[in-house]
Amino acid sequence: MADLEVEVIEKPVAPIEKPFYQYGSFVDEGSDDECIGSDSRCIKLMSKNDQKFIIRREHAIQSETIKAMLSGPGMFAETQVNEVKFREIDSQILEEVCKYLAYKKKYHESDKPIPDFPIHLGIVLDLLMAANFLAC
Question: Which of residues 116 and 17 earns the better pLDDT score?
Fold first, then answer.
């Protein structure tokens, strides 16, 4: 039996421009005030290691799971912060999810060619599991 050699070739990808996935700066710099009430512009997502990500509501609801969590019965009185905690998703993966949700919102109905969404090979499996859970 011959030994098989496998070569992994990573296709270079153009960097994603930051403004389309950031709300201000989406990691730890958004204000909780922007997440208060049922009609807030932003949602706070918390990773399992307690890093917060404040992203636009319109981006967050690209995930069917997050959308369902936000619209559940008794959720988020007018004075409460719209916060979703993920006990199983670490900050590196949640950051990529936030980027993808914004990417999806930006290109969902685009007439132009859609660029590839870059994913680091080291996080592919964890990201796939998170995407499956979040239905995004």
Answer: 116
